[in-house]
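Re: CU-O-CU linkage structure - here you go.
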Amino acid sequence: MLTRPLWRPARAASAKNIHLRAARGLARLVSEPHGKTLAWCYNGLVPGPEIRVRQGERLRVIVENGLDEETTVHWHGVRLPNGMDGVPDLTQRPIGPGETFTYEFDAIDAGTFWYHPHQRSSEQVGRGLYGPLIVEEAKPVRIDRDVTWVLDDWRLTKSGAISDDFGNGHDMSHNGRVGNTVTINGRVPDTFAAQQGERIRLRLINAANARIFGLDFQGHEPMVIALDGQPVTPHAPDGGLVVLGPAMRADIVLDMTGEPGSQSAIIDRFYQGLEYQLIDLSYDAKPLRDRPPEWPMELPANPLPEPDIKNAVRHEVVFNGGMMGSMVMADMGGSMGDGSSDGMMGGMGSMMGMMHSGKIWFINGVAAEGHVMDPMLTLAGGRSYVLAMTNATAWHHPIHLHGHSFRVVTRNGQATTHREWQDTVLMAPRERVEIAFVADNPGDWMFHCHILEHQAAGMMGVIRVT
Ligand code: C2O
Ligand code: CU
């Protein structure tokens, strides 16, 4: 076991200074002749600048708030000290307009992470505040090109402005703010140039409020080598689709096996009947090599503590609420959660009442209002835990835990093939998922759905690690 918490480095690493300024800006989401879109940006960019450090380096990020409202920055998936987690009122006082706040922490895990506000996330992230954080391995796998694609989904009006219907009741009680315009790195994509024989490490980040992606790389054989930043045994994605719920990441090795001069589309097939072409891979007339390289793909492991599942303490976690929630609850026995979910069972009248108060989604019967709340669970530091989670709703939910990565050990009672480490696990309607982890990072940590409208409407709790 660990003798010393990993986030306290043995040697004082010198910090890398990074400046981020959140403010309004113009982003070219859609190509000309359309105009630019008024967005909220870090350093005038959507996404914000790609922050890149080496594993073991210390980051010091000076965040300046140029918005008219409070903000924070959360380092999604990064295991860091609680005070640096960027959760308003819970881990820090929010950064007021004109104020600055300095985040400082060590990058203990290599991988693909991202950053975004945790203050009114639905609108702040939805207007463009997010950016990639890449922590490089000391010995990365060999590739020809390292490419980051931050995926986002916007709801734009006919004139190309961001529709300002944030937080409307329909989005909050259904599948969140799914938009009408998908961007890669802040731009409606057109083509991606590649060469036959080239090997690309593609880092996919889903920064959308609510859209789930299911990418089909038609004719190519993507190999997943990391999920949510954490290495996984290289494998072809289940059913051929790389599925990414909001906040999730996947690193894939993509061997460019198309013919010189050919074109090949990547299709997003997540929502049945709503498939669309995300981007075209466009092959150069000249090949790089005539067949894919045979370089190893396995990434070096990160220093994660292994949960002792046999002796782990188990907790049940039930998610409920949302439209058609009472039907699912009745089907599943109707006894999930505690008595306080009665409101959800009481027919449409009380459902509308709940929606009116903004309490639409519940974890173990409780709907959050803001980030400060009594912990739903208190975990003993250093102990192993299994959370047995039930999605008693009619909707998908990407469930995220701060400050830790967990192993996804079972789905509907079946052991998972890869026991993947994740920080955000996508749960299908009615699905049961067990996750396991060592509660080794002291503090109050958010545990919430990363469909940001669900989070805003109550699907959030606090897990305390002592
Ligand atoms: Cu990326 Cu609590 O969030
Ligand atoms: Cu959700």
